[in-house]
Design a protein that fits this description.
Rossmann fold, nine-stranded mixed β-sheet, globular, Ribosomal Protein S5, domain 2, alpha/beta, 11 helices, 455 residues, seven-stranded mixed β-sheet
């Protein structure tokens, strides 16, 4: 007889416990233990001799090496984020806020691959086939090789995979799929873990490139145990505001490419459109001749992107001034303000400081430090920056400006967009030929940069 057993599983890390705990012993998260039921079937013991490996271990020097073949889509931004295209047999996890455009992106990708002659199976657990057809009509994604199924039962999904034999598989979403052999509700930790493990075996054994859509929590992380992100080959986050037109596809894990690449899309009536020149998009609404506005050259993977940094410094009415930032770590903002106070004599203890990256981009590299310092100083002194200057460089605690990587690519991107001057670390000027059409000013301290930028 099967015995029903109750257990408590952490929704964050998957740690199991026989009783409910307020704090997970594995990841130390509070109130993350959820109750689940499992069926335990008593079976006879199985010896190790009954397991036979299909493949024998072999020396690593005898294994054939070669570049993984990739399937290129017609979306160049997606190809860049994936490292050159979709790798057959890879398992990709795509997360994002509700309504951000995950299903739209994957349906357009499925259509692009089906046009190339590949068999694509799109399984939707949240929309009916008629709703998917309405979306396809709007996007113009109608192809004979694109198969659509509305199903959440794992066994029926397996039958569909065996029947179609697809080259590309989309599961939208993994939280709606359930295994009948697992006695827990769809979307629970056990169901998500077992279903993901099953699709991983399908991808590796059959060589089917599989994409899983994952829901996100209110904190922005993919729902389910963290084990989910360890099992897949690639984790992509689709970011952006639903009330804005552009979206950013960012890779946070990629076994077949770089994790620093981003793809930028613009949402329109006919779906997502690629943005080939993101710098021009982010600077299209930039005001000229105002204080607190500075253009920074940031590297996103292998591509330089010019973004506007905006700072606002105002007198506070509270004992403790506020430090708020959007797109940049607020701890970095506090560090830069401390450097300006200590090394440059700016009295900012009675001032609120706000820093914003225009366009909704998140910048996490240290090369934006110098531009942030110039923006804050410009707003504090109410001195406008020159409209055709680009600033980048890392700021140290002693007020020095440190060298950054890929300075040549940043300068070329600034020259291409018509900027006249670049204020950058002096130590980054060595080893490459400077363009003749743009003035380059090398600085070693923040004081020199402020003098050059604000006069």
């Amino acid at each position: 007889m099967a015995k029903i057993k109750t257990k408590f599983v952490c929704a964050e890390c998957g740690t199991e416990s026989a009783k409910w705990l307020g704090k997970c012993p594995g990841c130390h998260a509070w109130n993350s233990m959820v109750e689940e039921k499992e069926t335990v079937v008593k079976t006879k013991g199985v010896g190790l001799s009954s397991f036979h490996a299909k493949e024998k271990p072999q020396s690593i020097i005898h294994i054939e090496s070669g570049q993984e073949p990739r399937i290129e889509t017609r979306m160049l931004e997606l190809n860049r984020v994936l490292g050159g295209g979709v790798v057959p047999g890879s398992l990709i996890l795509v997360g994002g806020d509700p309504g951000i455009g995950k299903s739209t992106l994957l349906l357009q990708t499925s259509h692009a691959l089906a046009v190339k002659g590949l068999k694509v199976l799109y399984i939707s657990g949240e929309e009916s086939v008629r709703q998917t057809r309405l979306r396809a009509d709007r996007l113009g994604a109608l192809t004979e090789s694109l198969y659509v199924l509305c199903e959440t039962n794992m066994e029926l999904i397996n039958e569909a995979i065996e029947s179609v034999q697809p080259d590309f598989l989309v599961i939208d979403s993994i939280q709606t799929v359930y295994d009948p052999n697992v006695q827990s509700a769809p979307g629970s930790v056990s169901q998500v873990r077992e279903c993901t493990a099953h699709f991983m075996r399908v991808a590796k054994i059959k060589g089917v490139a599989t994409v899983l859509v994952g829901h996100v929590t209110k904190e922005g992380a993919i729902a389910g145990p963290r084990l989910l992100e360890h099992m897949v080959d690639c984790v992509l986050y689709f970011e952006g505001e639903r009330h804005h037109t552009y979206r950013i596809l960012r890779a946070v894990k990629n076994r077949f490419g770089s994790t620093n690449e981003i793809g930028i899309f613009e949402m329109g009536e006919e779906g997502l459109r690629e943005v080939s020149n993101p710098s021009e998009l982010f600077l299209s609404e930039r005001p000229l001749g105002v204080s607190g506005s500075t253009v920074v050259a940031s590297m996103e993977g292998t591509r330089p992107v010019l973004v506007e940094l905006q700072a606002l410094v105002a007198t506070t009415n509270f004992p403790s001034p506020r430090r708020m930032s959007t797109g940049i770590d607020h701890n970095r903002l506090a560090l830069i303000i401390a450097v300006l106070e200590k090394r440059n004599g700016m009295f900012l203890q009675t001032q609120d400081a706000y820093l914003n990256v225009a366009g909704g981009v998140k910048l996490d590299e240290p090369a934006v430090d110098l531009a942030a310092a110039v923006s804050i100083a410009s707003s504090f002194r109410d001195a406008p920056t020159k409209p055709y200057d680009v600033v980048f460089g890392e700021v140290g605690l002693t007020g020095e400006v440190r060298a950054v990587s890929r300075a040549e690519q940043r300068v070329k991107e600034a020259e291409k967009l018509g900027f006249k001057r670049v204020i950058m670390p002096e130590k980054s000027l060595k080893g490459w030929k400077h363009p003749a059409g743009i003035e380059i000013i090398g600085v070693t301290t923040v004081s020199e940069a402020l003098k050059a930028a604000l006069g």
